Amino acid sequence: MIPRSVQIALRRRIIQHKLKSVSHIWPIDPSAAKKPAGFHGWPNNKKFALILTHDVDTKQGHDKCRQLMDLEESLGFRSSFNFVPEKYPVSENLRKDMTQRGFEVGVHGLNHDGKLFNSKKVFKQRAQKINHYLKNWNATGFSSPSMHRNLNWMHHLNITHSTSTFDTDPFEPMPDGVKTIFPFFVTNGLSPRMDRAEGASSTLGTLGTSNFRHSVPPAAGASSTSPLDTGQEGTYNLRHFRHSESPQGFLELPYTLPQDHTIFILLKEQTINIWKQKLNWIAENGGMALLNTHPDYMAFNGKESSGTYPSDYYIEFLEYIKSKYCDNYENILASHIAKFSDINWPKESKNKNRKKIWIDLDNSPHVPFFKPIIRELENSGYSVLLTARDCQQTCEMADTHQLPYRRIGRHHGKNKVIKLFGLFFRAFQLAPIILKEKPIIALSHGSRAQIILSKLLGIPSVLIQDYEHARLLPFFKPKWEMGPDILPDSAFHINKKCILKYPGIKEDVYVPDFKPDPSILTDLKIRNGNLLVIVRPPAVEAHYHCQESEPLFEAVMERLLSRNDIQVVVLPRYEKQKNEIKHTYEELILQRKVILPEHVVDGLNLMWHSDVVISGGGTMNREAAALGVPVYSIFRGPIGTVDKTLQEQGRLVLLESIDDVHHKIHLKKREWNLLSFENPSATLASIVRHISTITNHQ
Ligand SMILES: [Zn+2]
User: 112 C-alpha vs ligand 1 centroid, how far in Å?
Assistant: First the structure.
């Protein structure tokens, strides 16, 4: 386990490193200012809305709530306090006092252990408990701990509103902003049948990295009088949302001012200039200023310690708003804005008139790779249509990363004829949606079904690839090909004029976004002092698979398991492979010498916390190399230029025989270096630039 102080130091380093590369979207992301179509303005014709919320993470925070409440009240402000119901006792008196004095109470997760969104099953179980507290506390609002979220799952909560997102905050564990400084309505797309089925995403639109769309629930008799007019508080909401699982959906209120923890604890700012700068920009654009501060980190009456900041900063901010904006803003409670928005929020599709790019996720490594590309493309004004093949956890990964994709087609095993048939069949399955959505270009990292369909429909396709031995089908070539600049032109399949190159390797696109989370070690029950080795078996069903890898895999397992101080996490690719491993190592799995994770784990995080990685797959080898973790390859197909280069640089060791397995692998605790990436955004920027150049030609 990494001690908390080291974790904070590590996060500080990462953040400071990151600061430069995100200055174009933080603290202000200019694209977030766009008003939703049909927006009629704030209550009482005020220039902007001000919402103050507090997530109360600890008992210490809980015990400081009264001081915070007094402070706000004395300056004439009201706010929402979100408590964690099963982490510390929440005083009933405090809650009652709050509501009596015009504040409101909400629920902040269940026990703040970082596992709420681990799986849908966990979430649904906990949602029942959360609903119980919502009811008991007479609360209708929810905020998600650490802004972990899956807005679709949150329809299982009986809420009218949530504050679980942000317009832009690249420093959060899930760094995808919703890119708006306005609330938006999350329509309930849940139904038992739609839940996992292909059709589910059709209710989501293609709004990018979060699953939401603007819409209006059926009109009701609510009026648009001042939301602070308490006479009719919550009646509309109660009628529409408090029974069963919120049938229409809930209003999501992204926080738009950076969190206190980020600026005062991690960035060690000594002024509130960042808050002022962002507030002024929000006011100028008539948006919603939503500030989430934690009493936990606030030091009252000068009682400062490390990990706190003076409450004077907060006072200064509130006074600044008052003096600068007098009557121009409306300080609203989150629940009131939910009510207000029910009647004013328009139905809108954000993506009208945007050029559409079709991306097909054909395999699980493409999910993290395309995620930042999608984000950047959307920032540059494109809309993205995302499809995914149901293969090797691709869809599960896309769910974890909250990508709104349409699940189309599946994997067809290793029989060559069936596979070829499967490719054409999937192209055929993709056709209706592509004909309807009319993307201007098609983009993938080796989706052959996409290339086939694009060719047939005359859509220019871009194939990104980094392995020259992958085969293309005859007659079906992409229009453009893109790859790392270390690949020679001969590694591509098309005319030199249509070859595009980027600096670095594909893993450089997303590995720099990685943030370590040591809780994975406890989750997997790794015993202190043991070596953690990650093993990825060969891709036996891939067309580039070579039989020699399998004996190497077995030899590796044998060598690792002969030692008592090693725990091996095996990451199989297919259900079938998983079952074989389960069967072969049954006894050792019970002893937790061999660990088969039940759910998709964050591969980068797992590798970062491991001592050695041994893998039969290209992507994982390169990710480990990019992270600086010792990595050995048991891949025995033709070795590509990228891997050869990594080997020459000493960042990857190729195991070519059983003898190599016994002599070349160094099994020892690894030294942890802080992550440092030379020019983290160059690879991503270059890829996005190429794509936009291509679309400008269309
Ligand atoms: Zn929290």
Answer: 7
